[in-house]
Amino acid sequence: MNARFGDDMEALLRHRLEKAGTSGPRRAGVWLRAIADVLVQAIALRFDERAERRRRVDERGETMMTFRSLLQDIRYAVRGVRATPGLAALAVLTLGLGIGASTATFSIVHGVLLEKLPYEDPDRLVVVWPEVNANQTMVALAEEQMASLEAVAGTSGWSLTLTGVGEPRELDGLRVSPAYFDVLGARPLLGRTFAEGEDLPGAAGVVVLSHDFWVNAFGGDPDVLDRLIDLSGADYDRRRVIGIMPPGVEDPFQEVDVWIPLEGDPALGLEADETWFVNTRIARIAPGATIERANAEVRVYAGRVQAAIPNVISREEAEAATVRGIREYRTRDVRASIWVALGTVGLVLLIGCFNVANLLLARGDRRRRDYAVRVALGAGRARMTRMLLIEAALLGVSGGVLGIAAAFGLVRLIVAQAPDTLPGIASVSVSPTVLGFAVTATLLSTIIAGLVPALRAGRVRATATLGGGGRGAARGDGNRLAPLLVGVQIALAVVVTIGSGLMLRSLTSLLAVDPGVDGENVMAFRPVPPGGRYPDGPAFREYYRQVTRRVAALPFVGSVGGIHLLPGTLNNWSFPTFPEDFEIREGEPVPSVNFRAVRGDYFETVGMPLRAGRPLTDADGENAEPVVVVNERFVSTYWPDANPIGKTLSIFSRDGTRYRVVGVSADVRQHRRDMDPLPEMYLSHEQVPWNQMSMWIVARVRPGAAEPSTRAGAIRDAVWTVDPQVPITEMAHLADILVETTRGTRFLTILLSAFGALALVLCAVGVFGVTAYTSGRRRAEFGVRLALGSSRSSILRSAVSRSLVPVAAGLAVGLLAAGLGSDVLESALYGVTASDPATFVAVTIVLGLTAVAASVIPAWRATRIDPARVLASE
Amino acid sequence: MTSPRSVDDRLPLHPVEFRILLALHDGATFGTRLVERIEAAEPAMTLYPANLYRRIRDLLDGGLIEEAPAPADADPRRRYVRLTGLGRAVARAEARRLAGLVAEAARHRLLTEG
Fold first, then answer.
1. A355 or A378: whose pLDDT is higher?
2. Is pLDDT above 90 for A296?
């Protein structure tokens, strides 16, 4: 105050003194009164401050009062929960399962579909014309002609075997154009990436290592830079390590251990360029351009390419050319299924919430008297509602905590069981986003489960409940919501179980498909001579001849053969083929036929029947007549009306070596059982145009002839008697490899079936609970009826049928909904339609019977009453 | 428009505060001049600096008065204050309250002579 008004205060004092005049006593009086004024005001100000503080304390007290009442409500809620531990446990378990399952499923959605890809500006990454294979020149032309693309790179998968560094191992290699790492926006951790010219034929071999591979194989040693390592693919080569990528750099479509340059001669031109293995082209959209523009440009580019090489690419393929976002493209097969899974588990959670709501409603009815007392004591409606909401929140939060804990375990299970080919499966985890989903699910579940019971509690009228007399009035007007909720649950459960039923049938159909080979009792293994060990073709092939002979000599082995690409794996080789007498029309591409090299008694070993002619044998050697076995699909496609035996074909060029057809094999589903077989040709390993094709050896074991544990060892020993220096990079049962092809379908089926089972259990619990509740409420009625002579069985029928009314309604609504909505599953189904009547009927029966069973027990208990006692107590 | 609640909250006013508000109805002024106006209306109210400026501070803090720009020829050390809209409303309310009290006293014949 002094600081602000000091001058004014002084002026007022002077004014007073002036008014007092010159009289000494009067001036002294002014001074005394001024001093007293200051003292009095100082004391008054102190009191003012204390009053202010007291006011603030009172305000806090009011806040304390509100806080205290909240604490009271929480204590009441805890007491309520502890008073009914069974109900609480059931509610928490129900919510926990639902929240856990939906969180785990969302983690898949997030990891596979939503998580940002680990590249620079990933939304600008695209695949170019993924519908066809390309050659190197097409890649260069795309970059030249499509202005909307900043950089284009081709990639081609390539298996390699690393030798000379610890155990020999199979590597996932990727051949890439020099622009590849620029497209991804990835920079090396050490060293460099490919330079211009390193992709030209004859250039010194170089390789870039992935971070994981570098750590696994070389212990993360930076001295590996500049070292030469042995990587033998189809032909032996040693390459210099020029770079190591940082962790997290990976190809969008496959696992990669090493990257090597995609070799090709740019001077060749489109027609002469035979590098037709550039399976994928990735590109980066240029700044300022859009995918739409790129799509317009790609059709023009594709048209030009097709016009230049009509013998390779058809007009339809050119017209269908697209540019697609990489994320969208790589998840195209699984997107629908994953969203279906999330939708399904959401419905299951909803069923669980309704169960808990019904539990709380039923308990609310039992506690009506208690609520009425509280209302009479002054608790307002809002307070009552708040108390019940807190109770629901306690259950909800407990369920949420349980669910999140369960989600961690479920996610680990999912990642272990999911097919490796599921893109982004490695990023599936309980990330902060996923946890956020769990929290949201918990919140929503709490509201859905708790709101209606809480609102009902708030509507309790003290006088009606307490003063009304008799238990009937105290029970209020009953819970009409319970049957409705059960009906809704049943409807939801129908939708869920139909989904799992359809998937189960689909899986059964898929497993019933004959893959064309019999993998039972067949061992498959891969001896790969290290680079340079057998530098020339004949020596290389002689090695495999020896191995086949030694393994065939084992007492428990029935037959032995070899193939360069096993059925059931994703790898494929296909080549332009010129079948005799098959006219390739002007403007149409040359047929591209799947190719396999075989040796020994391959067909017999894997149980592939011959439909005509003979199989390839060791007699079809290097110097014998070039021969080939084709499959049925080849014949029906290219020689539908002719006898194929004796016809010839050539590969790569019309004027190349002509191979004579000596046999027709049955069709094999090489990759996926749900894909129709394609035309295929089998050449003898002795007659292929490449020097160093490593082979899988397959050996059919006589059942019971040897212990499974000893077979692998005996085979290994037999292989090593030929050459102990050659590693066996893989060994497996062919049956296991074949089953892997159905892993994706099995995974989705298991997931949806688990949800279906959970839905079924929850519904059973729901029906059980509601029947117990409604039957309990009808005790008086039952007592009267029994006293009047009704039989217990007719009471039972009455109780069960009453509870089944909402079940029937729910079934009807659910079947309708499922019939309308099951199309979402269409793309994931095989061998069964989305509206399959058998499934619908089966689900109706199963759910109906479950509901009946769940209602019989409580209904039967209700009929066990003593009518005299009941009537007396009512 | 001042809310009725905020006006009623301030009542009853301290007599000195009411006097200050009444005195400021004649226009903005500074401390000594204000005291002169008050003493002209009620000679018995002798205000000393600490008392006066405590009340002025309270009225300023309560928003019933505000500091005003001094006239051009004024002593720059003088701090002028004037009524705010709220202050006017509160003064009116207090006057009505007092008038009500007086009417009540009149009903009880407390105002008749003798």
1. A355
2. yes
- Residue A785 is predicted with a pLDDT of 87
* CB-CB under 8 Å, A9 with B31: yes
Residue A124 within any structural domain of the chain: no
How far does Cα B77 stand from its chain's mean position?
Answer: 23
Substitution target in B54, B58, B79 with the highest count of A β-carbons within 10 Å is B54
pTM to 2 decimal places? 0.73
Average pLDDT, chain A: 87
> A141 and A11, same structural domain?
no
Is residue A704 domain-shared with residue A752, that is, in the same domain? Answer: no
β-pairing, A206-209 with A236-244?
Answer: parallel
Res. A473: pLDDT tops 50: no
> What's A467's DSSP letter?
I
Match 């998840």 to its residue by tokens: A331
Q: Looking at the complex, report in whole angstroms how far the Cα of residue B82 sits from the nearest Cα belonging to chain A.
A: 15
Lowest mean pLDDT among A173-182, A687-696, B66-75: A687-696
**Closest alpha carbon to A104 in A347, A409, A334, A543:** A409
Q: Is A632 part of a structural domain of the chain?
A: yes
Question: In this complex, how many residue pairs, one in chain A and one in chain B, have their CB atoms less than 8 Å apart?
Answer: 64
User: Is residue A140 domain-shared with residue A185, that is, in the same domain?
Assistant: yes
Query: pLDDT band at residue A479, thresholds of 50, 70 and 90?
Result: low
This model of the complex carries an ipTM of: 0.84
Q: Which domain holds residue A224?
A: 130-321
DSSP letters for A627-675: EEEEEHHHHHHH-TTS--TT-EEEESSTTSPEEEEEEEEPP---S-TTS
Answer yes or no: do A270 and A350 share one domain. Answer: no
Residues A53, A179 share a domain: no
How many helices (H) does chain B have, and how many strands (E)? 5, 2
Q: Is residue A116 part of a domain?
A: no
Q: Are residues A541 and A624 in the same domain?
A: yes
Q: Are A574 and A593 in contact (CB under 8 A)?
A: yes
Q: Are residues A262 and A352 in the same domain?
A: no
- Domain residue ranges in chain B: 4-107
Domains contained in chain A, number = 4
- Identify whether residues A824 and A694 lie together within a single domain: no
Query: What pLDDT shows up at residue A190?
Result: 93
Helices (H), A701-836: 708-722, 734-739, 743-777, 779-787, 792-821
* Residue at which a domain ends, from A59, A82, A105: A82
User: CB-based contact (8 Å) between B51 and chain A?
Assistant: yes
At the top level of CATH, which class does the domain B4-107 belong to? mainly alpha
Residue A267 lies in a domain: yes
Compute how many other C-beta atoms are within 10 angstroms of the C-beta atom of residue A830: 20
A597, containing H or E segment: strand A592-600
**Residue corresponding to tokens 């697609």:** A324
